[in-house]
Structures are given as C-alpha cells and as structure tokens.
Design brief:
22 strands, binds shikimate-3-phosphate, 26% strand, UDP-n-acetylglucosamine1-carboxyvinyl-transferase, Chain, alpha/beta, 4-stranded mixed β-sheet
C-alpha cells in the first residue's frame, strides 16, 4: 500500500461493481417472478446489508461461485421479518427499502450505525405516509424507522423538491404495490437507475424530461421479469483512480467496463474542464445503462474551474476527491451549492474544509459554496486526517498523499469496506 508524491497511476483497471446498481438489482430481482442471476455485485458492506434485508423480507438469495441467484417474490408479498433490519452505514439501503416495505402489510423496524442514525429520513417518509403507511422516526427525523406498511397503498402524484435519487426510488419501490398510476415529478439531475432497471425488467414505466425536470409514470399492470445482470463498474469508486491519474502528468490508466450513465459522470466533465486528458471508447448500452471504457493519459498540469450548483447532483459523491484535485490545480476552484453534502455519511463539506487546512491548503466556505485556492506546490502533509468513518473522505485524503511532501496519518482505515473493500489492494496494483 504505497502512495506518495512520486507515485504515478498506471495499468488496466476494472472498478468494483456499482453501488447504486447493486442495491437496486437486489431489490428489484427480489420482486421479479422466476430466477435472476447477478454477477459483479459490489461486495461492499452497504450492499451486503441490503442483501441480508431482502433475505429477512422473504426473498431467497444464494451465492454460486461469484454469482448471486435470486428467486423473487411478487410485490405485496414480503414477509414480516423476525428481527430488526440493520442497514449499517447505508442511506441508500434504508431509504429504498423503507419505500418497498411501506406498501406491504407488515411491521418492521429499520436501524443503522451512529452515522446513519443522524441522517434525515423525513424527506422520504413524508411521501410514503401519504400513501397510507404509518411511520415513526427518532425525534420525528432520524432512524430507527418503525414502519407499519399499508397493503392497499394509494396511488398518488408526487412532487419532489430535493434533487435526490433516494427519495424518488423509495417512492417508486412503494409504487410497485399500488393499484393505479403513480406519478412523480423531480429534478432530472438525479441518477435514473431505478427507472432504467424497471424498464429492462418489462415493467410499465414511462419517463419524460424537459430541461429541468423528469416526469415518471408507473402502472403495475405488468409483472417484473427475472433478469441476468452484470453490474458495471462504479464510477464513484473509479473516480479516486481517474482523479489520481489526472493529478500526475506521466500517468496512464485504462478503465474497463465503467458505468457511463450521464447522471453519474459529472466528475469526468469537471476533470476535463480542468485539463484532464480523458478519452472514452467502446460505448455500449446494457439493460438501458450506458457502459464504456476510458483512457487517461495525463500530459499537462491541471487548472481551476467553477462547478455550478445545478451540476452538483451529477457528481455529488465525487466532491471530496475533486476537492483534493482542486488543491493541486492552478487557481481558484469554486463548488457552488453544496448543501446536500452536509447530510451525507458525514458533514462532508465541513470535513473537506478541515482536512484541506490540516494538509496545508487554503479553502473557504461561503454559505454552501466551497472555494479552494489551488497551486502546484506540494502541500506539507504529515497531518492527522479526520474522517469520522466516512469512506469517501478517507479515500480522498489517502489520495492527497500524492500532493504532499510527507504522507498523512489515517487512523482506522476499516470504513473503506462500506463501498470499496479492495481500495488498498487496487492502490498497490495501480501505483508504481
Ligand atoms: C444514491 C443517491 C445519492 C448518492 C448516494 C447513492 C442512490 O444520494 O449520494 O451515494 O443510489 O440512489 P441522494 O440521491 O440522496 O442525493
């Protein structure tokens, strides 16, 4: 596990399976009639917690070599679990499965770790209760979530005011067991994997977009068909290696089989705007998702950029690593409108700011905008990184060793298992 100011990133790299897709395929294949077969499922703890949750809710899932075989049960027929369901660190898991449960006639308690127990849930449950379920939250805001689902959930129209794929997907999963049309209006910048997967599985879903909004209509007059699904590589995990390669002229990295959905690759556009030499080849569509290979062949130093608030949802999980990149790019980089970053696995806005200061980079938070004063000087480093067990903060500031005179100190690296258990193994494979 070596990474320091002299490191270059080189090789041919297959990122681990996409986290968002892994959660969704476990849930939707669990509601499909017949046998589904999933390969390249992410082995991160968040996804494994969703897998365990689906088993507790009555779905049969078996591992056969490196594939998962799922025998689904139809919407509305979930079992009442024998115990509470623990989602660990996963906001996606707890929110999506709250939606799924809320239209089943069962009682369930959903819990999480210390971080998840302080993340806002009302943004999801306020929609779900309108359909008829009864939901209790700690302090009316946070997990544990106690749900008494309604097997006769009312089909309604929803207008989602926060750009969040998790809110939308929770409603969509509740809609799987409603008798009628469910309509959703939301910001079109959120990731659309639930829509793409439902469509691939033969569900009756219509999606329309204008310049700002997406309009979704779901009608459950067709059952979900089982599917063979190979989960493409996660761009949010690959972002650490792609960014690291852009930071260092002389790096050459080929990234294979990466999910290239437009709602997920805002960071690639940002890196290109900063002078990242990234080319895209072999674009192909698999189950309505765009997948590609990319080549990073960095020749020049990076420069600063401005990221507009409308573009933040397209790169929401990559802001921590982009902030490290901005520190080593000449000039002032501004990320606008980072409010959502304050309610992720940690208050990421605050932790980015504090850690940049610790390694020797000037940054300022102005309301929810982040200003980073970048330059090509090596930073002092030798700092104790404060990560509060947030996987993406830890990995981002591990990469920051590449721009520091002395390596930083990171205590307890175990939280990488949340989304990227093989992160350190990959670091040793793709650095010289
Ligand atoms: C996710 C959506 C995003 C993202 C998270 C995964 C998903 O959250 O930050 O890591 O799989 O739907 P929001 O949609 O709440 O912004």
């Amino acid at each position: 596990m070596s990474l320091n100011k002299k490191s270059l990133i080189k090789g041919t790299y297959f990122p681990p399976g996409d986290k968002s897709i892994s959660h969704r395929i476990l849930i939707l294949a669990g509601q499909a009639i017949g046998k589904s077969e999933i390969s390249n499922l992410l082995q991160g703890e968040d996804v494994i917690n969703t897998l365990k949750a689906m088993k507790l809710l009555g779905v049969q899932i078996k591992k056969k070599k490196d594939k998962y075989i799922i025998f689904g049960i139809p919407p509305g027929s979930l079992f009442e679990p024998r115990k509470v369901i623990d989602f660990g660190n996963s906001g996606t898991g707890i929110r999506l499965i709250s939606g799924l449960i809320s239209s089943n006639n069962i009682k369930v308690k959903l819990v999480g770790d210390a971080s998840l127990s302080n993340r806002p849930m009302k943004r999801v449950t306020e929609h779900l209760t309108k359909m008829g379920s009864k939901i209790e939250l700690k302090k009316n805001l946070f997990p544990p979530i106690k749900i008494k689902g309604n097997g006769n959930a009312v089909p309604l129209s929803f207008n989602i005011k926060i750009p969040s794929a998790q809110i939308k997907s929770a409603i969509m999963l509740a809609a799987l067991n409603t008798n009628g049309k469910v309509k959703i209006k939301e910001f079109k910048t959120t990731r659309d994997h639930t829509e793409n997967m439902l469509y691939a599985m033969g569900y009756n879903i219509k999606v329309r977009e204008n310049s700002l909004y997406r309009f979704i209509e779901m009608k459950n007059d067709k059952e979900l068909k089982s599917i063979k699904y190979n989960v493409p590589g996660d761009p949010s995990s690959a972002a650490f290696f792609i960014s690291a390669a852009c930071l260092k002229p002389g790096s050459k990295l080929v990234v294979k089989n990466i999910l290239f959905n437009g709602t997920r690759i805002g960071f690639i556009k940002t890196l290109k705007n900063m002078g990242g030499n990234i080319s895209v080849i072999n674009k192909r569509k698999i189950h309505n998702e765009l997948v590609a290979d990319i080549i990073i062949e960095q020749k020049n130093n990076l420069c600063s950029t401005i990221i507009k608030s409308d573009d933040i949802p397209l790169q929401i999980d990559e802001i921590p690593i982009l902030s490290v990149v901005a520190s080593f790019a000449n000039g002032l980089t501004i990320f606008k409108g980072l409010k959502e970053l304050t309610v992720k696995e940690s208050n990421r806005l605050e932790l980015i700011h504090q850690n940049l200061k610790r390694i020797g980079v000037k940054s300022v938070i102005k309301k929810y905008d982040l200003h980073i004063y970048g330059n090509r000087d090596l930073k002092n480093g030798a700092a104790i990184i404060k990560h509060n067990n947030d996987h993406r903060i830890l990995m981002s500031f591990f990469i920051s060793n590449m721009i520091c005179k002395k390596n930083n100190i990171i205590k307890d690296k175990s939280c990488v298992k949340t989304s990227y258990p093989t992160f350190f193994k990959h670091i040793s494979l793709f650095t010289n």
